[in-house]
Each structure stands twice: as structure tokens, then as C-alpha cells.
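Batch 3, record 17
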Amino acid sequence: MKLYDGGKILIGLMVFVGIATFPFYYNIGKVNAKPELKTDTPAIQAWEKQYGKKECVESKEYMRSEHMQLLNNWRDSVVRDMNRQYVSMTSGRKFNMSLQNGCLECHSNKKQFCDQCHNYMAVKPYCFDCHIQPMEKEENKS
Amino acid sequence: MKAIISFIAVLILAAIAYVGVDVLNMQYIFGVVIPYLAVAIFVIFMIVRILKWGSSPNPFRIPTTCGQQKSLPWIKYSKLENPSGVLGVLGRMALEVLFFRSLFRNLKTQLRDDSQLTYGEAKWLWAAGLAFHWSFLIILVRHLRFFTQQVPAAVQLVEMLDSFLQIGVPLLYMTDAVLLGAITYLFLRRIAIPQMRYLSLMNDYFPLFLIFGIALSGVLMRYFLKTDIVSVKMLTMSLVGFSPSIPQNPISVIFYIHLFLICTLFAYFPFSKLVHMAGVFMSPTRVLANTSRVKRHINPWNYPVHVHTYAEYEDDFRDKMKNAGLPVEKE
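Prediction for the assembled complex:
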């Protein structure tokens, strides 16, 4: 098979292959650090002592995929309807619908919890432009 | 009819993924085997296709031109419309690929009541095509966040700009809406305009529905049905690291449907009209400089051309010609 204008075509092919396989070589030599979540804050330990098990607002699977939606609903509910109480669909327990006084009360280790996933996925929730983050010691930042 | 069959085909594809994952639990097949296969088919057959095109000779310069050709120094010539060299071609191609310049020239031809032929602007196809392709590109770039460990700053920037209206949580990406809108227009156009409907084939409708299905499943997954995205990234990272494994936390079936449709698109790409992605760079009417007169272009098929001169002809038939009383040049 003879190629006409072969040089130009080969350059084009190289560019194509370079782009199409970008993810395969971009990550070579980079550590594939999966998020490590710590759920052993004082608040959660106290909760565990009181109720005998670790619990989130909803089931773990639900939280993993729906927590953004949940937060959005909470925000609407508080800001628009002045309703600050959330009744869990899983356990029936009542929670204070609040970002900094709810989620982050238990998950007071934001850097080792929320941020672990968010950095992994490169999402930067803009919530903390306004909402207060918990104070955390820098040294045990992973 | 062709549209309906294409639609059903995409539904069946989605159903295959649904049954395969939700009923038969073939996560590994749908999450690992098929994606690898699809990417391999895509890359290999794109190359095959391009080499095949490259092996057909290009004997003449046939660029479509619509401007003054370069000739005498005091005649102004059109660098982009009638390029005379590499730079002109590059400029022309850049405008073509990035802004669909030739589509911008699209005209509407109509016969008025007084049987007068009139031409009018027809920019909708251009606008929708541009919106569609650019959204698609941006969405593709955004998806790199699933395939890179330290997500490149450029990808994050694209993501930030795309979501800067900050509507809802998770933030609405503008391109999601634009893509769905544009592709709906492109489909309705084929259905609503009689000539277009007549021209359209299965291979026109199928990619439209397929891409619509991909976009729709993606939008459903991001905004409505939700799935555990961190696990999705673990899966994709394991794929690009060639150590495939299905994460422990279950990923909901909508993701597998999305993925299967994408794999179909990848595998279908090199064999469909979608190869115009590569084809646009290889169309002789676009990429050639108009050097028909400046340079001698030799046809590579049969050069040197075999010629039979009159002298040779006379040698062959001299006796017969003499017998017939015809004049000959050489005795």
C-alpha cells in the first residue's frame, strides 16, 4: 500500500492517537490515591456510644450518591420555608437541617472526609465561600 | 419509519445494558470488557480508515474555491477562499473545523409565486451544528476528570466556566442543556423539512438517537437518578491504569446504560458517517492549495502515459495504407 502525502497523514495519525489515548499515559507514574474517609470524630463517637452504631442522616449508599441533592433540599427548606427539622427516611430520627451545625457537626473532620472525595473528583463546592468550615489542625492533613 | 427503527435500536441497546447489569449481574462485561473492546475498535479502525483514504492518489488539485486565484502581483487574490500555499490552507481549515465556515454560506433557495428564484439566509443549521459540536467537545473535555488523577487545571477551568451560572446542586452545566437542545433541533429538521426527510437514512437517524440517548442518560445520572460517582471514578481509573476492577460500592444501572451507549458510539464511529471527524482533514476539496497552474501535478496512476505517435501508427499500417491508396509520410 502506498500512501500519498504520507508524511502529513502520519503526523495527523500521531496527533489522533496522542489525543485518543491521553488518559492511558497521562496517569502513568501518578499514585492512584483513593479517598480515605474517616468517620471517627468526637461527635460521631458520642453518637455511637449513645445509639450503639454509626449512622448518617440516611443510609450510607444514599448519602454517597445523593448528599448534594439532600443539601440542596435542606437549603431550600430552611431558607424558603423556615423548616429546620429533617426526619430521616431511614431511621426516623430528627436532624437539624444545617450545613455547618448538622453535617459538619458530626463530620467535623472536613479535610479528611468531605474534601477527600471532592479532591478526588475535583469538585469544589462553593458553599464555603459563605458557610463556616470547622477549625482543623493542619498536621494530620493527608 | 427509518427514524422509528433507529429509535427502537437505541432503546434495545439501553435494554441490553439494563438486563445485562441489573438482571444478569454482568458488571465486568459491561464495565470492563466492552469498554476496552470499544476503544480498541475505535482507535484501530480509525487508523485503518485513514490509511485507506491516504492510499488513494490525488491526481488533480480540486479545491472548491470562491475567490480570486493568485496570479499577477497587481491582482488582489483571496488568501482564504483560494489558498495558494500551506498557510492559506491552514487558515481555511481552521475556519472550517472550528467555525464551519462553508456551512455558514448555506443558502435557502426558493421559487416565489411569480416563479422567481430567490436566495435567502439559512443560518439555523450552522448555528445548531456549531452549538452541538462545541458542546460535545466541552463535555468530552469535562469527562477527563474521570480519567485523570490530578485533574489538569485546564479541565477544571472548563468545568468551572461551564457551570458558572451556579444553578442548583449539583451545578447545572450549560453545555448539557445546549447539547440536548441542538440535537433535538437537528433531529426535528430532518423530520419537518420534506426534502430532508426524503434524504435521511437510518445512518443519519441512528447517531442522532444514540447521542441523544447518551446525553439523556448522562443528564439523568447527574441531576436526577444519581449514582455513586466516586466509585465510578474508581472504575474508570482502574480501566486507564490497566488494572480493571469493579468497585465494591454498587454503581447504579443508569451508569452502565450510559457507558454501553458510549461504547456503541465508539465502536460504531469508524464505520459510520461520523468519521467526518477525520474525513474533514482529508477532503481534497478543502485541504489542497490551488496550485493547478503554478505547479505541474503528475497523475501517479499511469505515469509516464503511454502514447502511440502517428509515426508509429504509420509503421504499423504502412502496407495497408499504401494498398488503399492513402498518402504516407515515409516511404
